[in-house]
Amino acid sequence: MGVRLEPSDEYMHELGPESNFNESMYINCFDPDQQVGGWFRMGNRANEGYAEMTVCLYLPPADGAPRRSVGFMYKRPNIDNNDAFDAGGMKWTMVTPFEELRIDYTGKVVLLDEPEQMADPKKAFTDNPYAECEVHITFTGQGRPSMFGGEPDTPHEAPGEEFAKGHYEQLVAAHGTIRVGDREWEISGHGLRDHSWGPRYWQAPWYYRWLTANVDRDFGFMASRVAKKDGPGTRGGFVWENGQMHLCDHVELSTETRGDEAYHQTITGLLRSSKSNREWKFTGEVMDLIPLRNRRQDPDGNWLMTRISEGMTKWTVHSGPFEGREGYGLSEYLDQIIDGSPVGIAE
Fold first, then answer.
1. Which structural domain range is residue 230 located in?
2. ∠86-89-91 over CA atoms, to 5°?
3. Which residues have C-beta within 8 Å of that of residue 158, sequence separation ≥ 6?
4. Last residue in a domain, options 173, 201, 229
5. Residue 64 and residue 38: Cα distance in Å, rounded?
6. Among 51, 54, 123, 137, which residue has the least CB neighbours within 10 Å?
7. How many CB atoms are closer than 10 A to CB 84?
């Protein structure tokens, strides 16, 4: 199966006829010196008349505060086309395909000393204070050789199980400013971005684990485990090492959870590339976690519940030339919730 990725794919795609057509960009970053970072997403669902706009900032303790906090905002601004990512106070600007992207956000965030309160979003948004927020960050990548993915030349998703017709990712550097209330940081760090388009149901995977990590501009990885309710699903990812992209066809993960909600806390993993005849081992410790949710009614009127737990994570590499080095990134755990429990708790 071939995969196409052109510079034109960095821009908006033609709006498809599917009612749930989604085009989205996501990006994360973390400054290890200042211990501040976050992630940003814009998903256009023009045929449904709205966009999904999300800002999530992982913040160091304020003066006198005993713990770290999270600044968060989610909106569904109205849109009627797929011409741009520009809604709800957030704007994405593609400067140079595969090399430079800029995001700008001006608006409010709710401040969460206990981010797990977002399991009940109505209560979290009601009971916590807000602050004015501004974000202006430029993300730079290392060109076409550092890109992973694209659009397959043959369909790869069954009807009703669509998650992305096309999808690609890239490790990036990040420079800019984040301001929350009267605190401001000039950040210099690294992260990962992705871009996808096509019909999407958040309920299509049975569960998935999506891990992103950066040590510096010379080493990082992405590990993906997608499970289907009926079938083996997929395992894979990539490792970027000293200017070379290693495509991985296998990933093994083991997760230690905490609490009655079974939020992920400690991750042990392995990525393997048959082509490169290499493997990389790593562990991760979640620093800050915020649980998000998506709900959809099925044709019978039943509500389907999906939990997406977003963990800012500190990673340690345990093999290869970067053994012993530490980095940062996100661990995103999506689970369908059945009888109050996440279905992928065993992995």
1. 204-347
2. 35
3. none
4. 201
5. 22
6. 123
7. 15
Pair 165, 17 in one domain: yes
Same domain (yes/no): 64, 139: yes
Q: What is the pLDDT of residues 51-85, one digit of tens each?
A: 999 999 999 998 878 899 999 999 999 999 999 99
Contact 212, 191 (CB under 8 A): yes
Contacts by 155-159, CB closer than 8 A, 24 or more apart: 156/1, 157/204
Q: Give the number of domains in the chain.
A: 2
Does the predicted TM-score (pTM) go above 0.90? yes
Concatenated DSSP letters for 174-243?
EEEEEEETTEEEEEEEEEEEEEEEEE--TTSSSEEEEEEEEEETTEEEEEEEEE-SSS--EEEEEEEETT
How far, in Å, CA of 177 to CA of 104, rounded? Answer: 10
Provide the residue count of the chain.
347
Choose the final residue of a domain: 201, 231, 264. Answer: 201
Give which of 79, 73, 67 is closest to 55, Cα–Cα. Answer: 73
